């Protein structure tokens, strides 16, 4: 009886160790590599993004730096239960479009209209990442990659 308990505990420990390392490996591969981004959409800003499976992603700060309008920080909302991020346009001094994104979804809402993206919204290490080109193209903003400098440029067309 004592040996079987030891075996069960050992097997469970090894299984948990294997599970833990596979989760860590998955989250590392999902985070991709970093890329420097320069945006001149609303003044010149430089920041870092991620390249995941060939797509450039930006976190919330990068997202805000690439939009052709300002966002009041009070207008931002993230619902952890549904993993939904919203930019609200109600009772805020800065008029902005209503935007809604859901982690894992390849569509987003802009003022009630649905737009398709080529890659999903991601949640990496408790940070939401937006597929840059798919979102800003709605606003006629151009995204280009310079292979020599290995930098992404975001600009008004």
What's the overall geometry?
globular
Helix content: 25-40%
Query: Averaging pLDDT over every residue, what do you get?
Result: 81
User: What structural category characterises the helix and strand content?
Assistant: alpha+beta
| Oligomeric status | single chain
Number of helices: 3
For the biggest sheet, the summary is: 7 strands, mixed
Helix and strand pattern:
HEEEHEEEEEEEHEE
Low-confidence stretches: 1-29
Could you give the order of strands across the largest sheet?
9-10-3-2-1-12-11
Proportion of β residues?
35-45%
Mind telling me the C-alpha Rg? 20 Å
| Number of DSSP-assigned strands | 12
Termini, distance in Å?
Answer: 74 Å
Give a brief outline of the structure.
With 157 residues, the protein is α+β, with helices and mostly antiparallel strands. The protein is built from 3 helices and 12 strands; from the N terminus they run H-E-E-E-H-E-E-E-E-E-E-E-H-E-E.
Description of the molecule:
The chain has 157 residues and is an alpha+beta fold. The protein is 26% helix and 38% strand. It has helices spanning 2-31, 60-65, 132-136, and strands spanning 33-39, 45-52, 55-58, 76-79, 84-87, 99-102, 107-110, 113-116, 122-124, 127-131, 141-146, 151-156. Strands 9-10-3-2-1-12-11 form a 7-stranded mixed β-sheet. Strands 4-5-6-7-8 form a 5-stranded antiparallel β-sheet, with no helix packed on it. A hairpin with a 4-residue loop joins strand 4 and strand 5. The radius of gyration is 20 Å and the shape is globular. The model is unreliable at 1-29 (pLDDT under 50).
């Amino acid at each position: 009886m004592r040996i079987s308990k030891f075996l069960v505990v050992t097997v469970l420990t090894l299984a948990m160790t294997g599970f833990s390392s596979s989760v860590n490996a998955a989250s590392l591969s999902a985070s991709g590599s970093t890329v420097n981004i320069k945006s001149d959409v609303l003044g010149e800003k430089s920041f870092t993004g991620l390249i995941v499976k060939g797509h450039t992603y930006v976190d919330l700060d990068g997202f805000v730096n690439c939009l052709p309008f300002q966002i009041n920080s009070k207008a931002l909302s993230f619902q952890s239960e549904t993993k939904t991020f919203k930019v609200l346009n109600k009772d805020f001094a800065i008029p902005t479009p209503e935007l809604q994104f859901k982690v894992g979804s390849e569509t987003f809402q802009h003022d009630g209209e649905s737009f398709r993206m080529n890659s999903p919204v991601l949640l990496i290490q408790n940070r939401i990442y937006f597929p840059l080109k798919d979102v800003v193209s709605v606003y006629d903003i151009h995204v280009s990659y310079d292979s020599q400098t290995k930098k992404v440029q975001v600009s008004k067309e």
